[in-house]
Amino acid sequence: MLSILDHKTWLSSDEVDSACFHLAQKFPDVDGLQSCLCYQALHQGGVVGTPEKSFVQILNVNDNHWITASNIFCGPNELCIYDSLNTNINKKTKQKLSWLIRPQAPHFLIRRPAVQKQQSGSSCGLFALAFASVLCEGVRPEECHFQENNMRQRLYRALLNKMVPGFLYKNIKAKPERASVQVEVHCICRTSHNREVMVQCSNCSTWYHPNCVSVPHQALDSTAEEWNCERCRDQE
Prior knowledge:
The chain is an alpha+beta fold. The chain is built from 7 helices and 10 strands. The protein has helices at residues 13-26, 37-41, 91-101, 124-136, 151-160, 217-221, 230-234; strands at 31-32, 55-61, 65-70, 78-82, 107-114, 144-146, 169-171, 175-184, 199-200, 207-208.
């Protein structure tokens, strides 16, 4: 764990997961806080990471950056991402976020509160944990200004003593949120699209994954083949 103290080193998944484990132990009413590796290993999400109540979840995006996602302080079919670098939300990230919310609505909304920006290029994991910690306490991260210069020491001491990391901050007035992003979801799995093969119902125009529903091979091989989903077939 001494690598935590190196200002040029990014936090590893083990260090992030360890801190999230202690947060989950202290805040049992907060869902999520699962291993970030779950979201890296599963290509299509499966059933992992679909919380049943208010959640906080740290994710690795673009293979080199940590963000925090949560539906605390959000309305129905919404979630917030707290990002100390304001990175681009690509299709892969949108799909990971859809695994967390899986709305029955045709889309969900990604809100982006204007949180503190990191000064060091390797501090994203520290800020992701700081955002997660205050969210568990019912505090809005956009109303916090953290002391970045001692975050590594505080995390190191906390993990060494098997405790929840506590990051020092002062309260500030929140700035206006950045532009929200609306994401369409599809299929019975209610997730967004990211390169997977999908087939469209000829009647209702809904898109489905062949891995989620039964689709004849000819419907996949030929654009001229009509195919109706089970819901439309039941209405015939």
